[in-house]
Specification:
The protein has two domains: about 70 residues, no CATH class; about 35 residues, no CATH class. Strand 3 and strand 4 form a beta hairpin. The chain is of the alpha+beta class. The longest helix is centred in the first third of the chain and has 15 residues. The strands form six sheets. It has a two-stranded antiparallel ribbon.
């Protein structure tokens, strides 16, 4: 009977000490609509945020033109350079190649000579090559 009391007590304690199994939670906000129920795109096609005829942000797959008056089809790019043929600001996890297109990358930061100096989480640099930490862990088993 004595052990049963302790078992019951431990069960109640463990139940009260439960914590969320998630280490990180993510919240996001939806874009707020104006009074008419429409997003203010300033009359610009594919624009999701505008003010006074200037587009600040476009839908996915489109980039803000250099004059900020239109959205141009351009993958993984937020903003275009002066001639609207090359990307000026690529999306996260993308980097501009020599043709001005945004290509996927595991490098988070580049120096002024376009050499990777910092990798995204899970990767490291060895002899100027990106390596995966997980493959290193696999070799250590």
């Amino acid at each position: 009977m004595f052990n049963l009391k302790y078992l019951l007590l431990l069960a109640l304690i463990s139940y009260t000490l439960q914590d969320s199994h998630c280490l990180v939670t993510v919240e996001y906000c939806e874009e707020e609509d104006d009074e008419e129920g429409k997003i203010d795109n300033g009359g610009i096609d594919h624009c999701t945020s505008a003010g006074e005829g200037i587009c600040n942000h476009c839908e996915d797959g489109y980039a803000v033109s250099s004059n900020k008056k239109s959205c141009i089809s351009f993958q993984n790019c937020y903003e275009l350079e002066e001639d609207d043929k090359k990307c000026k600001v690529c999306a996260y996890h993308y980097h501009q190649n020599s043709e001005g297109n945004c290509v996927g990358t595991l490098c988070q930061q580049y120096d002024d000579k376009d050499v990777c100096t910092k990798c995204f989480d899970g990767y490291y640099l060895k002899n100027n090559e990106l390596k995966n930490y997980y493959s290193l862990l696999h070799l250590c088993r």
